[in-house]
Structure formats: C-alpha cells, structure tokens
Design a protein that fits this description.
Layout (H helix, E strand, L loop, with lengths): L14 H4 L9 H9 L9 E9 L2 E8 L4 E5 L4 E8 L1 E5 L4 E5 L3 E4 L5 E5 L3 E8 L4
Antiparallel strand pairs: 1-2, 2-9, 3-8, 4-7, 4-9, 5-6, 5-8
Length: about 130
C-alpha cells in the first residue's frame, strides 16, 4: 500500500513512533476524547484510530455517532469486536447481532460483516492474522 501522507499533513504520529515501545497503557477514554475533537469530519458517522499494530495483531478504536456505520467488509484474520459503550447491530451473512456495552462478537477469518450504531458508542476491534 503506497497511500502515504507527507509528515506535515498527518493527523497523528507515524505508526513506527506510536507503536515503538515494548509496553504501553491504552487509555480508551482519552483516545475517544482525542478522536471526537480532531479537526476533520467523521466518515460515515464514525472515527477510528489504530491503537496497536505489531506482528499479526492490530487493534482499532472506533467512536460512532448515532446512525454511524461501517459498510460490509471482511478481514483475513480472526476478529474480535468488543462493544465498550452504545448499542450496535453487526450483521453477518448468518445473523444480525444486537450488541451493547461489555459484549464481544468473535468472527472467523473472512466472515463479512457490517456495523451500524443504533446510538452513539465506541468499540475496540482486534484482528489477528494468524492462528496463534
């Protein structure tokens, strides 16, 4: 992927800098606050930030507005969608899962899914690209 931005136009530090430490504490409330105050519009009623990416594991924090969505897509790895706040419908080919805070949906690789926020909320998405 060659979609690289010039350093001066980046919204955040380069991932090499953000994920360099061998230990980090993630403050998800601070991440939410930072995201919702960034000086750019949301996309489809959501904002997102990769909070961890090392080896086969990626974690992305999402802040959704009411009615926000993520179009149907699939990941090449195992997916964990942890609802932190709000109410969401996550639709797969087999079911429409109605999820709220403190629930986690686990998906096998390549399961297509769409995310719809029934109210404003946040979720933490984890993708593992290999069987650990």
């Amino acid at each position: 992927m060659t979609n690289q931005q010039p350093e001066e136009s980046r919204l955040r530090k380069h991932p090499r800098e953000r994920f360099a430490a061998s230990e980090r504490v993630l403050d998800l409330h601070a991440t939410r606050d930072k995201l919702v105050h960034e000086d750019h519009p949301s996309i489809d009623g959501r904002r997102q930030m990769t909070v961890h990416k090392k080896g086969p594991v990626t974690q992305v924090f999402f802040a959704f507005e009411k009615g926000g969505f993520m179009p149907e897509h699939a990941a090449d790895g195992y997916v964990s969608i942890h609802i932190l706040a709000g109410e969401f419908t996550i639709t797969t080919p087999d079911e429409a899962h109605e999820l709220s805070a403190n629930q986690i949906l686990l998906l096998d690789p390549c399961v297509a899914h769409r995310v719809d926020a029934r109210e404003a909320g946040q979720m933490l998405l984890t993708v593992c690209l290999e069987d650990l």
